[in-house]
Design a protein that fits this description.
Number of helices: 1
Radius of gyration: 20 Å
Shape: globular
Number of domains: 1
Structural class: mainly beta
Strand content: 25-35%
Length: about 450
């Protein structure tokens, strides 16, 4: 699912939208029982049935054949948020507006001292919010650094007592000297990785450090939807990385690995069309990707996904998807890879546009949430009836995904054509609240229990 409609801000009647959003003014609704998990074809839902507590489980065997439905162009129209409209969250939780008037806030990270760093990608800057003592509003709101090239990923290094703030631009990785509490960069950025592939589509680059702090992972999405025009010959990197792409897709649809100073570049994992969100599980140390899959195969293909990424693993793109399902556009090109595709852990409704990802490590939510994932679903354009536009909970058991995901925050869709919010990122504040950014109306929301 491509993030192609980010800046489509067609304005509609505020009065009409207020009527359409009458159903979203409630802060919380009852959650569904575990027994109501949707499976099989019933799991392929849309915004009409989304609600907090609804659980979906999509399995590889549930997938339809390519072209089972037409491929639709159904771009959302982002409209102003009515003053009374707030998202829906499960019973027992409360959602409130934390900040507004931001310029397309995208990826967020919580600094060790509790400050919230947010990338305003479109205008090339990083903003920092210092929250009030009760965490309910920004006490300070400053531009930390500007003049960046479509920044997205943010990371602090070392993680416990950081001396650097790393920023992943679309074409490079830079870092700023950092002292705890800095609200503005104290000097010019130092280039760590001078060149990342940047031509073509999928401009977001996320960045995380492994739990031991020895490696820096950087996600680089594909330059195209489905490697159009590319043939299946192995790349120069294939001797070092299974399924590595070649030609104009070289070192793309990958997660790359570096030392923290940018040396020792490697390909960590391949065949991941667009890993927008990277995260490290706080207990297991596993690296995860929140991934946008390809468009054009119909309403229910190809599922987006969230998965552990293993070093040396190949996840299919562009020759295969979700295991050994062969992409018809690349039939017969790489039979050598058919039985070497790693199946993702959690399949998400196709075209949801899964973006930012975090794991809950706070103490303010009920105990069963601890260690679970939260992911922001930016919303579809390539589906007849839209899906996404919500935050989902990734259920875990023993530090491993169960394959299920649960609607956690919904209510951003106003009608079949209009939406007022497009979730991008999730982060856990120091007080245990979950913060959600959305770039449709430039707001950040705070969820407490």
């Amino acid at each position: 699912m491509s993030d192609v409609s980010l800046f489509d801000f067609t304005r509609r009647s505020l009065a009409a939208l207020a009527v359409a959003t009458a159903s979203v003014v409630c802060a919380s609704i009852p959650a569904l029982a575990q027994s109501e998990t949707l499976t099989g074809s019933a799991a392929f839902g849309d915004w009409h049935t989304d609600r907090p507590g609804l659980v979906r489980l999509i399995r590889p065997g549930d997938l339809p054949k390519p072209g089972a439905t037409a491929s639709s162009a159904n771009v959302s129209h982002v409209t102003p948020r009515p003053p009374a409209a707030i998202p829906k969250v499960p019973a027992g939780f409360k959602v409130e507006l934390l900040a507004e008037g931001l310029n397309g806030p995208r990826e967020m990270r919580t600094a060790p001292n509790g400050d919230i760093f947010a990338a305003e990608t479109r205008v090339g800057r990083i903003r920092v919010l210092r929250l009030s003592d009760d965490g309910s509003k920004p006490a300070k709101n400053e531009v930390y650094a500007g003049g960046l090239n479509r920044p997205f990923g943010i990371a602090f290094f070392p993680s416990d007592h950081p001396r650097w703030v790393y920023v992943a631009n679309t074409d490079s990785v830079v870092r700023f000297r950092y002292e705890s509490g800095d609200l503005k960069a104290t000097g010019k950025p130092e280039t760590v990785v001078a060149e990342l592939p940047s031509a073509g589509a999928h401009s977001t680059r996320d960045i995380v450090f492994t739990k031991d702090g020895k490696r820096m992972l950087v996600s680089v999405g594909s330059a195209s939807n489905d490697a159009e025009g590319s043939r299946g010959s192995p790349s120069d990197d294939s001797k070092r990385a299974l399924g590595a792409s070649s030609g104009y897709e070289a070192r793309r649809a990958d997660v790359l690995s570096f030392n923290p100073d940018g040396t020792d570049p490697k390909i960590f994992a391949t065949g991941i069309r667009n890993c927008v969100g990277l995260a490290i599980h706080p207990a297991t140390g596993d690296a995860y990707c929140s991934t946008n899959e390809r468009d054009g195969f119909g309403d229910n293909l190809v599922p987006d996904y969230i998965t552990r990424i293993r070093e040396g693993a190949f996840y299919g793109w562009p020759w295969f998807y979700i295991g050994n399902h062969e992409d018809p556009h690349h039939a017969g090109e790489r039979p050598d890879l058919k039985d070497k595709v790693t199946v993702p852990d959690v399949l998400i409704q196709a075209h949801s546009a899964s973006l930012g990802l975090t794991f809950y490590d706070g103490n303010a939510f009920p105990a069963e949430y601890h260690g679970d994932g939260f992911a922001a679903e930016h919303g579809s354009w390539n589906r007849a009836t839209r899906t996404g536009y919500k935050v989902i909970r990734i259920r875990m058991k023993g530090g491993v995904p169960t394959g299920e995901y649960e609607d956690f925050m919904t209510g951003f869709v106003a009608s079949d054509s209009d939406v007022w919010g497009r979730p991008v990122s999730v982060t856990v504040a120091h007080d245990g609240a979950l913060l959600v950014s959305e770039d449709g109306n430039g707001t950040i929301w705070r969820i407490t229990h």
